[in-house]
């Protein structure tokens, strides 16, 4: 898994690209604070090499909790900036800081 950040000079946003290697998966979604944990607004696109990838504009100066859903299973990104306990979910969520 990988997270790439590209800060824009012209706008107060960061383009964050999430890449998930999951060749056997049918569907990968990234959910988090930045999309109200919606499974429909952030479906990652499957590439020919088996990775799933998606880029999202996130406002700078914030930290966002997130997780991947790979074929219905919640997974954290080990390359996240940090992890934070979430009482509602009863588990740790990955955090990306932009």
Automatic annotation (TrEMBL):
Keywords: Hydrolase. PANTHER family: 5'-AMP-ACTIVATED PROTEIN KINASE , BETA SUBUNIT, 5'-AMP-ACTIVATED PROTEIN KINASE SUBUNIT BETA-1. One of its GO terms (cellular component) is nucleotide-activated protein kinase complex. One of its GO terms (biological process) is signal transduction. This is Glycoside hydrolase. Residues 24-98 form the AMP-activated protein kinase glycogen-binding domain. The keyword Transcription regulation does not apply. SUPFAM superfamilies: E set domains. One of its GO terms (molecular function) is hydrolase activity. CDD domains: E_set_Isoamylase_like_N (cd07184). It comes from the Bacteria. The keyword Hydrolase applies. Belongs to the 5'-AMP-activated protein kinase beta subunit family.
């Amino acid at each position: 898994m990988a997270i790439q950040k590209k800060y824009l000079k012209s706008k107060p946003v960061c383009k964050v690209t999430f890449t998930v290697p999951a060749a056997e998966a049918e569907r990968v979604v990234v959910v988090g604070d930045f999309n109200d944990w919606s499974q429909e607004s952030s479906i990652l696109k499957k590439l020919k090499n088996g990775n799933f990838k998606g880029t999202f504009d996130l406002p700078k100066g914030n930290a966002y909790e997130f997780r991947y859903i790979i074929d219905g299973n919640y997974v954290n990104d080990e390359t996240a900036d940090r992890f934070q306990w979430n009482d509602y979910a009863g588990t740790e969520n990955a955090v990306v800081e932009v």
